[in-house]
Predict the 3D structure of the following.
Amino acid sequence: MPRYWGEHSGDDYPHQDITQAIIEAAIRVQNALGPGLLEDAYKACLAHALRGSGHKALREVRLDIVWEGLTVEGAYKMDLVVDDKVVVEAKTVEKLVDAHFAQVNTQLRFSSLQVGLLLNFRSWPLKDGGIRRVVHTRD
């Protein structure tokens, strides 16, 4: 059972091939750079690694929100959007908390995307608690 709202831990989720490629690239980046850099360095290197393996990786993608006819331009910036299908939120924090999951869920809710990865590059090694998959189901 997931620890956080929206967190997905099963084997049945959309875009498994893309999320697996992202996770593998993130692990390679962290293994090469270590756990002590700022988020921007990891985001740049992760985008570079993904592009090098044939994926489309856009950084700092602005996300507008609409509420009661009002459009708020650039209300969010998604760290990475990979292959126009998966949101990646990179963190370098002591511990992932509910606010981080809420951020990814909000990005998924206001975009047309369904899957997000929350990566905490401070967690060493990354695979031991630094990777969380978030799936937003639409009603």
